[in-house]
Amino acid sequence: MKFTATMPLMLKEDTARKYEAFLAAAKDADVFLPDDFEFINALQRVFTCSDFVFKSCTRDPKFLKDLYESGDLQRTFGTGEFREKLISYLTDVKDDVQLSKQLRRFRRYHMVRIAWRDLAGLANLSETMDDLSALADACIDQAVLFLYQWQCLKYGIPTSHDGSHQRLVVFGMGKLGGQELNFSSDVDLIFAYPETGITQGGLESINNEEFFVRLCRQLMKIIGANTPDGVVFRVDMDLRPYGESGPVVMSFGAIEEYYQEQGREW
After folding, report:
1. Which domains does the chain have, with CATH numbers?
2. Burial of 115 (0-12, 13-18, 19+ CB in 10 A)
3. Rounded Cα distance, 206 and 213, in Å
4. Which of 220, 257, 252, 250 is nearest to 235 (CA)?
5. Who has the most CB within 10 Å: 16, 131, 166, 178?
């Protein structure tokens, strides 16, 4: 192969070992590679540069087959496409266990795609960071949607004093806020809700703060817990008001007061 022929001996041996291991796993899974020289050459290059992609594809060779046959490896995603794909992918999710598992499978599938395009020279740095950030946005957004709906069934809908419904607002900070995530980034988040009040219409009524604290803690678990399927994204809350000692979630008024009194221009 063109790529392996120009590699140092140690890398050639490592590439050959990984390639043979993948072929064995693919054969066991009854998955066959396409007769595509450019694809095979890219596969060896990507395996050499990324143990994550190699292990992910060897663990489930159908991942790579699906990526190739879908054409997702060869094209740039449009605005909102991660969200659209994830909505479809989560259609049959019924509880938090399924949500956790499906989010991790979706994340792994698309992290392989993003890494492949990056290492195969099909995507530039800007596209890679945009895709990683959009993937994180989609996963957080859909996790919030499902968890909010399920929690409303138990505790009712959080409302303000005028009866308007309250929703959780998630602020992406740091690299996520700048749409500059890299492959090892965690996500820096701040949580907020509009106003104090109580929940209405559920089996058990609680105040809005308690509702959103429960929601945020469940979200951090769903997104950031390390399970046998890995993590979705590691969550960092240190940038919230008052840092590690601050509450998990605050009302808009409390956050505004904090930044007016203690916020810094930097």
Report:
1. 1-59 (no CATH), 71-262 (3.30.460.10)
2. buried
3. 11
4. 220
5. 131
Residue whose C-alpha is closest to residue 149's, from 93, 195, 89:
93
Within 10 Å of residue 258's Cβ, how many Cβ atoms? Answer: 15
- The H-assigned helical ranges of the chain are 2-5, 9-28, 37-49, 51-59, 61-70, 81-89, 96-119, 125-155, 174-177, 208-224, 252-262
Selection from 169, 250, 186 nearest residue 223 by Cα: 186
Name the token pair of 176: 């996520």
Which residue, 216, 72, 257, is CA-closest to 64? Answer: 72
Q: Is 221 helix (H, G, I), strand (E, B) or coil?
A: helix
- Could you tell me the two tokens for 171? 């602020």
pLDDT in tens, the chain (266 residues): 444 445 566 677 888 899 999 999 999 999 988 888 899 989 999 999 999 999 999 999 998 999 999 999 999 999 999 999 999 999 999 999 999 999 999 999 999 999 999 999 999 999 999 999 999 999 999 999 999 999 999 999 999 988 899 999 999 999 999 999 999 999 999 999 999 999 998 888 999 999 999 999 999 999 999 999 999 999 999 999 998 899 999 999 999 999 998 877 65
